[in-house]
Amino acid sequence: MRRAIIVVVLLLFCLPIIAQISYKEIKSSRLNTTRQLKIKLPKNYDPSSEVKYPLIIVFDGDYLFEPVAGQVDFQTYFDDMPGSIIVGVVQGNERRWDGYCDEVTGLPRESGLRFHEFVAEELIPYLDSSYNTSKFRVAVGHDLMGNFINSYLFKEDPLFQAYVCISPDLSGTVRDYIGKRLEFFKDDIFYYMATSEKDLPYIREAVLNANDQISQVKNQFLTYYFDDFENDNHYTLVSSAIARSFDKIFELYKPLREKELEEKVLTYEGTLDNYLVDRYERIEELFGITKPITDEEIEKVVKVANQRNDLESLQKIGKLAKKLNPTSLLGTYYLAQHAELTGKTKKARKLYESAALLNEVAHIDRDFILSKIEELSVTDLDEDLDEDNEDN
Fold this sequence. Notes:
- It contains 15 helices and 8 strands.
- By secondary structure, the chain is α/β, with parallel strands linked by helices.
- Helix 2 (61-77) crosses helix 8 (237-249) and helix 6 (172-182) packs parallel to helix 7.
- The N and C termini lie far apart (94 Å).
């Protein structure tokens, strides 16, 4: 009875994901057959929109697609990663032939090479022409296919920008020279690899050796993450690895958190408006998507500016906020604050009066702005009286 209840609960949890999955077929001249795809589009996906989305290709789509789709749903809910187009390649009984690699080189040959070309020359172009894909592509593979996806790293122009190799069955040249290959990239590349203490012994040994290699690589364009899970085996590590890999690959995309504020923003050399602008330009450059700077992010950076007693940053953040959203009072409010803190009372009052005519934000309403105007009006009156007394 207990097992039946658990099964029902799991089915109820998966139903929303399953309901959003579409199944398509793609004819392949390389494979001389038709392959089935599982496709899940981001929530509120609009084909007529100019919004672009990262593309996640899930090899072993028969069993790996749903865990990936569930994790993407979870992380996008908390805005920890962008909405993404997820495509699972259903391999079924062809998996062994799809992943067929040369024992010496570890690279695809014969049926494996045909599958390699199918993905690069047919599948990706089809998806790019059919959906609003960005330039950022992620490959996810487990075991045999965890090794296979490395073959795209050995191309002159890698097909993917991020690789999630879960307990990969590394072999040949790939196993022995992957670290050397990662030294030569001149564009950003993300590489994630995982094993576990109860992994298959021969796979674990090869993965640990590869980790030793990659850990020595000094390449500013490489972002490498490695996990060695406790207690998990070759199969149970999959869910943990998917969660960790996406958490790391899309770390820059996340909203500003306390750790980044303390370690990077607080110690930033320069005005903090530049930190914000550079951060979001980097997100666009890397993931090929535009993420707007939010009021919440601006407010967090202003708190750091106050912590640094950095009035120049306060003024420049005010100008930035005003430029980003001219109808919001936030930018004008910070400019008024700057004027007030630098002793320019009359200018501050005028700016607060201007702010009172603009749209309110979460924690700054019109009543608060009016109270600031009244406070500064009293200050102006006291200053005028002091000047009269001095004249007398």
